[in-house]
Design brief:
Family: Belongs to the zinc-containing alcohol dehydrogenase family.
Helix content: 25-40%
Keywords: Metal-binding, Oxidoreductase, Zinc
Pfam family, one: ADH_zinc_N
Largest sheet: 7 strands, mixed
CATH topology of the largest domain: Quinone Oxidoreductase, Chain A, domain 1
GO molecular function: oxidoreductase activity, acting on the CH-OH group of donors, NAD or NADP as acceptor; zinc ion binding
CATH class of the largest domain: Alpha Beta
Distance between the termini: 12 Å
Oligomer: single chain
Shape: globular
Cofactor: Zn(2+)
Length: 345
């Protein structure tokens, strides 16, 4: 089989590897489509994501969908040829965090496409993968594979908004309108937010935010408007920080009203972040991190399969596997793209 393997920053090669065979309890998936995520871009351009450097040839990708190609011993409830979205994470179920209902913090997590462990958990940008049957979420035949692969980023957004609590009637600020930010916006709108303001550095990203239901968009260079939000001890009930920048977090803390909530979804740079952290105390803010997802993946696959949420406006580009380096360059250029997919036909 062929796979997109990162050998060094900005150098993905199409290598021929052995196709993995399903063990007992596993299924072999023929991957049909996969989305390029922000962490994939970080690995590609920087050779690391957050605190995790790439230390060996590394297959990227953790947002994919495909069809069942073979069943391992003991697998039931799935059939060869069935379309599935594939959850990239497999928790152990026995460590203290799994027992506490926090499987996203599993001490033995096997999250495909992550360099957090060594040897790395190789990713899914390859023609075939072998995964636990529990990681496969059936989707209708009418849902195309690229749409089905959006279950992973949608699950991230669903988890973040679950942590935020009820948004009914809330004034919400979204900081950062990349793919995850725009999905957060779409979900917040559906969850009953009364008013959503979107903030970003890029005009094109703000146009997408408007398409997905933002009531107001503001360029991050509009300092006068942003400064207004900090007056009278803040403006917004809930702030969703999805930029992953220290400037974005600082804005979030200043814009949240006293007693408000700030959800950190963006992956901040490694090390210390110089922000106005004292505002967490002085405004009695609830500052809550959000990491990956728990059982929201199955919900996300169902939401997409039943067309309860439509993320197709975000899906701006698609490339064949052989053009993977070009795909990553386009995905990195926010003046051109939003969500970029690879196809493995």
């Amino acid at each position: 089989m062929f796979a997109a393997v990162l050998h060094e920053p900005k150098k993905l090669l199409i290598d021929e590897l052995d196709a993995p065979q399903p063990q007992a309890g596993q299924v072999q998936i023929r991957v049909r489509a996969g989305g390029i995520c922000g962490s994939d871009l970080s690995y590609y351009f920087k050779g690391k994501s957050g605190d995790f450097p790439v230390r060996e040839p590394f297959v990227l990708g953790h947002e994919v969908a495909g069809e069942v190609a073979a069943l391992g011993e003991g697998v039931s409830g799935l059939a060869v040829g069935q379309r599935v979205a594939v959850n990239p994470g497999l928790n152990c179920g026995t460590c203290r965090y799994c027992i506490k209902g926090m499987p996203n913090h599993c001490l033995n997590m096997r999250f495909m496409g992550s360099a957090s462990t060594f040897p790395h958990m190789q990713g899914m940008f390859r023609q075939f993968i072998a995964v636990s049957a529990h990681q496969c979420m059936p989707v209708p035949d009418g849902l195309d594979f690229a749409q089905a692969s959006m279950a992973e980023p949608l699950a991230v957004a669903l988890h973040a908004l679950r942590l935020a609590g009820s948004l009914v009637g809330a004034k919400v600020l979204l900081v950062g309108c990349g793919p995850i930010g725009c999905i957060l916006l779409a979900v917040a709108k559906r969850a009953g937010a009364h008013r959503i303001v979107a903030l970003d550095l890029a005009e094109k990203a703000l146009q997408m935010a408007t398409t997905l239901g933002a009531d107001e968009t503001v360029l991050a260079t509009d300092h006068a408007r942003i400064d207004q939000w900090a007056q009278q001890r803040g403006t917004f009930d809930v702030v969703l920080e999805a930029s992953g920048s220290t400037a974005g977090l600082d804005t979030a803390l200043r814009a949240a009203r006293a007693g408000g909530t700030v959800i950190q979804v963006g992956n901040l740079p490694a090390g210390q972040s110089p922000v106005a952290a004292n505002l967490v105390m002085s405004k009695e803010l609830r500052y809550q991190g959000s990491f990956r997802f728990t059982d929201e993946y199955a919900v996300a696959a169902e939401e997409l399969g039943s067309h309860k949420i439509d993320l197709r406006p975000l899906m701006t580009h698609a490339f064949p596997l052989e053009d993977v380096n070009r795909a990553f360059e386009i995905a990195h250029d926010r003046t051109q793209s939003m969500k970029v997919h690879l196809h493995f036909d």
